[in-house]
Fold this sequence. Notes:
Layout: E1 7-14, E2 20-21, E3 30-31, H1 37-42, H2 47-50, E4 52-61, H3 68-82, E5 89-93, H4 99-109, E6 116-119, H5 132-143, E7 153-157, E8 160-163, E9 168-169, E10 178-179, E11 187-190, E12 193-196, E13 221-225, H6 233-240, E14 245-250, H7 261-269, E15 273-278, H8 291-294, H9 305-316, H10 322-331
Parallel strand pairs: 1-4, 1-5, 5-6, 6-7, 13-14, 14-15
Antiparallel strand pairs: 2-3, 7-8, 8-11, 9-10, 11-12
Helix pairs in contact: 4-9, 9-10
Amino acid sequence: MHSAKPAVLILATGGTIAGQAADEVKSSSYASGVLDVGSLLAAVPGLAAVAEVRGEQVAGIGSEDMTEEVWFKLATRLNRAARDPGVDGTVVLHGTDTMEETAYFLNLVVKTEKPLALTGAMRPANAVGADGPRNIFNAVSLAASRAARGMGALIVFNDRVFAAREATKLDAMNVDAFGSPGLGPLGCMVDGKAHLYRKSLRRHTSNSEFDVSGLETLPRVEIIYGHAGQRPELVEAAVRLGARGIVHAGVGAANIHVAVKPAIIEARRKGVAVVAASRTGGGTVPARRDELGELGVVYPDNLNPQKSRVLLQLALARTSDPEAIQECFATY
Length: 332
């Protein structure tokens, strides 16, 4: 039997939100993932009035150390929660460094219409002005809201709500760290209530074809960053080391240095999938039939390099056909 309040499952993975600083004022130096989920929830006033909450510790790491193993643990637990009539919504507490990658991965592999919110913090738990408790309160409120049903994985941060596909970390230190360049938030949180004004139209969650339940790992995909004076050796090394895919974070509209293009062409000839993304942080890179496009190089629409890597990994677990992979980037 349900109580009168929604039931929200909270999965903790560590991060700054669970961190402790030696100096509460100089909070740029701290240890991540020190506090457990129970301690984090106990520090949030008014949480019990929003939902019946239950916390589970999945990991205790800084998200710079995020692994596919933790991704798979989260996906398995969230898919189980999706089938559990005693769970109305879920929250993942996560470090901010790779939160957008985890959020997008979950957006593609968790089969649910139930609200799924991710949040974290930019300041450790004992810092002056710690932002974690408010972000947790907002995430639980969002997960308990019927307004968030069917919206896919969401990132809620500093009172704003973002689609997992669109959100990215834009600031290394400020508490207003996340944004969606060119698109903006889906809405905001005001006094614990979700005000949502639009939704992402790309396929996700219960409407996604991706399923990792039978997988133990994902294909290896490396990101290589374009820059002035770039040389081809890193592309060559990725191929030599067994990468199934390469995301090239090119300059401008995914442009690739003339010295590197032959290595990209050779990678394609050896069957390595290549996505030509942009390092700019915004804008659309549409599929095109240039020399590289004819060789099967994929263009990622408006996905940034790190999310392009996530989608390419999942696509390669199903197919190596560049046309099918290009269709994934047009669909998800």
